[in-house]
Queue: 3 jobs
Job 1
Amino acid sequence: MAEQQIEAGSMKRLWRFFPALPALMLSGCTVDLLQPAGPIGEGNRDMMVLEWAVMMCVVVPVIIATLVFAWKYRASNTKAEYLRNWSHSNKIEVFIWGVPILIILVLSVFNYKSTHDYDPYKPISKEMQAKVGAPDAKPLHVEVISLDWKWLFIYPDLGIATINELDVPTKTPLDFRITSDSVMTSFFIPQLGSQIYSMAGMETQLHLLASRPGNFQGEAAQYTGPGFSDMRFRAIAMPQEQFDAWVQNVRSGDNPLVAKEALDAQTYPKYHTAPPAPHDEAPKPAPVVYFSSVQSGLFEGIVAKYNVGMSHEDHGKNMGEKSMNMPAESHEAAPSNTGM
């Protein structure tokens, strides 16, 4: 009798933790992923929640069955039926095969649809723009270059650039062209949407949209060695009028964060390299810097300098028929942040 009371008390304590199971399962997800600020981020969140809900269709019954079986077939329960020669059950076979097949079919349909709807290379659709109330907004083009422990953002249509700060207008499609002048990493703004790799000598694309103003964290989502966790930047979304005022402020040079020199092939190596740090410490995160002027074709020149096997004609074409005079030592002199 005493043993049964102890067992009953143990079961009650176990059931108390059951309501906390959903929170435990979602503890591996950052809060940013669950608080999207754009249609791409919302789609990613909805797909993640759907997959979590489908997973619970398997996890919850298994946990319940485990607890029930442990209680029902405990050693002290002499009334439980023991089938010594049991070997097969059609009901169990249907359940253990049917449920996984059904789950795979459901997830396949939704994954196929979301893969095409939120393809990083696919421009923001008019439907998404209409959803945020700006169906006729023209895209903002941004060139992204990952460096050692920092990010460089070039606005080719505006003639300005920034380091470790991405300022964008809300309700405007964002067209990113991404490359690396260091090791491979991953460009990711969790609240706005998908991530995509940044690789030297290659160009990837990403299309996002911020539906509301906010100060969002961007990060390098690919491990590249000591210090990579501090390779972050701020993505600041603001109304169009405020963004236009910010652009004018940067162009005028009145902002204290504006560098004294323009960003071109001669000054670029200064910002490419990471500041020195003790051997046993990772470099400190780079400060935010604005550039009121940027040399045209800088992004193309950085991509082209890694394509050493190209012909002279192709090289000139990639450079936009402009001589960038990118110094070869700018990459060789930069300390790599790879730990691999």
Job 2
Amino acid sequence: MGFSCWGKKKRLGVLVGFTENAHNNARLAFRSHNESEDSINRKNFLKLLTFLAKHNEEVDKVVLKSPPKNLKVIAHGIQKQIVRCAASATIDMILDDLGHDLFSVLVDESRDISTKEQMAVMSRFVNKKGCVVERFLCLVYVSNTTALSLKEAINSLFTRHNLSVSSLRGQDYDGASNMSGEFNGLKSLIMKENPCAFYVHCFAHQLQSALIAVTKYHN
């Protein structure tokens, strides 16, 4: 929940003013070079595990100080496995909410800090309560950001999660030629398979482009 008591702005410092508050901790790296018990900067995974242990007796019995040293499940490789399991369970819940209904995809591509090309994929659909929701599905690393490469990555993602291109009713991308190209863009490749998967130029990207254009001519 965000800060709303603007009549007493000094309280805002309690939420965001200290180095150890939740807002700042959320920006920390997943792992730390020093994750020993006396470290003051154990990063997100161990901080979250410590928080859970403090508030859940069942978790506290099997993590951190309780188990033998060879069963603490906090090694770097184990941390990644736990996160992958959590991600898999989360995606399963999203897909269960989606069911076999119609949906749209929102896709954007970028480079991570190591300059690897990656594609973020989100779904937009009407859930079982009749509410329109957007859910982040995954980040997919791709060899390049050509339309064909992105299409193959989406096909692989859909196959893995038993989704069908025929159920698509919308595509939302930025205006780059590899995404929105009239003949060979990603949206065109998908519409060749499913003409009902209509393309919408991302409104956030349109706003960004408009603001950039305005600032160029601002004295």
Job 3
Amino acid sequence: MFADVSLNSLFYEHIDLPDRHDGLCGDLRRRAVSGLRRAEPGRIDQTRRSFLSGKSGGDENVAIFFGLQIVIQVFGSDDLRSQLARRIEAEDNTDSVEEKRKFFKSIAAILTENQYAWEYGFWDYYSDTETAVSTFNQWRNEIESSMATEPEELGQEVDKLHRYSDQKEYLIVTLMMLIDNREETVEDDVGDVKFRPTFAQLAQPFVSMVNNIDEDEYWKSSTFEQLLNSIRSLDPRVIERDGIYVYPGTAQDGMSSLDLIGDEGWKYLTDHSLR
């Protein structure tokens, strides 16, 4: 466990892999990171489940991507970042269904409690397997490659390469996941096997909620609240892979309105005001 969160980015990632991959090995990893690697040639499409191979084999909707980003005003305070950091650290051993459920409910609750301070938002959803996997890869790789990762980039002073000031106006929280949508029985469910639900059945409430969102409601604050509430009720057993990024991730660093508006890379976020 990494107790020091005085770093450039705070990142949680659940990786369900039995073999070495992307320099990581094993089950659940949660990291406060000062040196995230940039995208490696080996993508994360190699896993114990065939639907993450990027080859659907006729099963075109067995993996679902969902990603959400919210820009939150922090009014010069470090309280929200610290609160998220403490929650991530406290749940370092989240390896059971109930622990994962508690973790996601708490993160969603913290974000919802700060709805009054939401400034911008973006979310994405794909139910095609190959697109879902590639989008998860793209989000993760682009976010990690944009973070300061070298010793020269870290420290007490603002990273001038990426931001214009260290004024604490905003925090960006990213939540992303791959959802198992297979018509296969959940093995660890209690009771007779013939009554056990499939992964697709467990994911269906979330899928139906997203599919029922009207296009003119996509970028409303109430929709983001609805999405977070659905994450709170999502059965963790269908979450094959997930990640949470908090940026900036240091008490010393900050993000200003000039950083957001002045950087073309954030335009996809600033195009969608939640006010």
